[in-house]
Amino acid sequence: MASMMVKNKIYHLSTCSTCQRIIKSLNNGEGFVLQDIKTQPITATQLDEMHRLTGSYEKLFSRRAMKYRGWGLHE
Predict the structure, then answer these.
(1) Please, is 1 exposed, middle or buried when counting C-beta atoms within 10 Å of its C-beta (0-12, 13-18, 19+)?
(2) For residues 43 and 4, what is the distance between their CA atoms, to the nearest angstrom?
(3) Least CB-packed of 2, 28, 32, 70 within 10 Å?
(4) Which of 5, 26, 8, 13 is nearest to 62 (CA)?
């Protein structure tokens, strides 16, 4: 079965100022499908597809994020 990947998709948090700045710099997200992961969580299928594209789950997370450290993932 062929992959149904959307190439121009941005997973973001609408409350994140960094995400807002990046989207704004990309012509307010024009030409992209925006998915606010707070209101529409990432599915297992989407996560698997991102893993396939990056080759690593670790690359999908920001090591600077407060929750990353809060959960002790940095150790």
Answers:
(1) exposed
(2) 14
(3) 2
(4) 13
DSSP-derived secondary structure letter, 29: G
Structure tokens at 47: 């996560």
Strand extents, DSSP E, the chain: 9-12, 33-36
Give the start-to-end residue ranges of the domains of the chain.
Answer: 9-70
End-to-end alpha-carbon separation of the chain, Å?
39
> 3-class SS at 10?
strand
Assess contact for 11 and 42: CB atoms under 8 A.
yes
